[in-house]
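#lab-general

N.A. 3:47 PM
ok so I finally got the sequence cleaned up, no stray characters, all 187 residues accounted for. can someone with queue access submit it? mine expired

B.Y. 3:52 PM
send it over

N.A. 3:53 PM
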Amino acid sequence: MAIILASSSPRRKELLRKSVSSFDVIPANIDESVKPKELPKTYVARMAKEKALAIANHHPDDIVIGCDTSVIIGNSILGKPGNDTEARFMLKRLSNLTHQVLTSVYIKTPDKVYQKTEVVQVKFYPLSEADIDAYLKTGEHQDKAGAYGIQGKGALFVKEIKGDYYSIVGFPIGFVHQVMKDIFDKE
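B.Y. 4:20 PM
back already:
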């Protein structure tokens, strides 16, 4: 039984290596559109599940891990910015506020499903135009929900975290590791 990560995220790959030494990576190619009136927590859980099932349908005898992360202000989902203007707008919205980072993981085995959605509170310091300009020049905001990476220079903006740090990075490794122990201790 192989383990498959349904993601091309280098951060998720790095974190999964902490728990298991061997796994395959097969990114799921799905429609990630938000449905009308869909709540953020429902959205991230649905995305993680759809990513896992898109791969599990072709690999029914394997363990497939799907994940999704979104940055939330109120009920607004801040996805990955399409350009620097969108990233600037997102960072201005996050400045001096507490927002949520939701990460859902869906693990499909041949005979069982494990799913969990982590909700983490993140408070930012006030960000000046100079702070935002300097950060955008790093390029780190690209391909990151909410236009920042907490594992990089985005950490400089964070005043306080309540919850699982690794869920902010995009992969709740503690939960995944416990699931892997549960699966393989039964074999």
